[in-house]
Specification:
Elements (H helix, E strand, L loop, with lengths): L13 E3 L6 H4 L1 H9 L6 E8 L8 H10 L8 E3 L6 E3 L6 E6 L12 H4 L11 E7 L2 E5 H7 L11 H5 L1 H11 L11 H14 L2 E3 L6 E3 L2 E8 L4 E3 L9 E7 L4 E7 L8
Antiparallel strand pairs: 1-2, 2-13, 3-4, 5-10, 6-7, 8-9, 10-11, 10-12, 12-13
């Protein structure tokens, strides 16, 4: 089929937007934190534009069209499992999974409850606990219990619906980090970095009627498969390997937030 014919792509065309930079990941302070959390050099954000009205109920068509688009294939970055280098897709996607990720939170007060239950002290220090293990993560403080240990009495301070929120997912990913993650002793770096990334990726607008701020982005957690098996975001599954598509239906942009679990850049 000649390029330029919509054919089976559901009518969506994409274009890579290399000039769109994400300050949230490139600032000196964030880079230092990502290095400490063993995520530096393994996390990336990219922007693409699209040309049709986005309809959330057609998200699967949208994502499939994205992976088949000739402007996406040579530009979408992922980490090679074998070489550890950044590569592009280089394989034909046969099947996709796109899971809706709720995104309703407008304030970091969502995390205030961590101060109430002796998880984080008033001065921001995270309360330590006896070392245990929740495969593959070591647990040495109360925050990680809240994130990982379903049988901990503190786990339930966040409901299942809370845990599905994009804001919570981002926070949890940053707290758990990469393979050689050095955990923070205080909460603030996690909260600050979560807020920066969230604000940079998620679009909001003031509702003309109610004058209230509302989130306009739709978010999906995306996995793609070729004829062999899973090919994106990686060929191996890991809780800390992910790709989120953050779709702005008004500007017609999609932001891709990607991370592949492993050993981040050290120096």
């Amino acid at each position: 089929m000649a390029a330029g014919e919509p054919g089976d792509l559901g009518g969506y065309y994409f274009r890579f937007l290399p000039q769109k930079t994400f300050r949230c990941l490139s600032s000196q302070e964030t880079s230092g934190r990502l290095r400490q959390w063993s995520m530096l050099g393994r996390v990336a954000a990219q922007a693409f534009g699209f040309d049709q009205q986005f309809q959330a109920y057609r998200k699967d068509d949208f994502v499939m069209a994205f992976f088949k688009d000739p402007n996406v294939i040579p530009n979408l970055k992922l980490l090679s499992d074998s070489s550890g280098q950044w590569i592009t897709l280089g394989t034909e996607v046969k099947k996709i999974e796109a899971t809706n990720v709720p995104c309703t939170q407008l304030s970091m007060s969502f995390f205030h409850r961590l101060y109430d239950k002796n998880i984080v002290r008033e001065d921001g220090h995270i309360v330590k606990c006896l070392d245990s293990f929740c495969d593959p993560f070591p647990i040495s403080d109360e925050l990680r219990k809240v994130l990982l240990m379903e049988d901990s009495e503190k786990y339930e301070i966040f409901s299942q619906a809370d845990r599905e929120e994009f804001l919570f997912c981002l926070f949890k990913h940053l707290c758990l980090g990469g393979a050689l993650c050095q955990y923070e002793d205080v909460l603030n770096p996690y909260l600050e970095t979560t807020k920066l990334i969230y604000k940079d990726l998620v679009s909001v607008r003031k509702n003309p009627q109610t004058k209230k701020i509302q989130i306009t982005s739709s978010i999906f957690k995306v996995t793609a498969y070729d004829s062999v098996g899973m090919c994106y975001p990686s060929t191996k599954t890991h809780e800390q390997t992910f790709s989120y598509f953050i779709v702005d239906p008004i500007r017609r942009h999609v932001h891709v937030l990607y991370h592949c679990y492993g050993v981040g850049e050290v120096s």
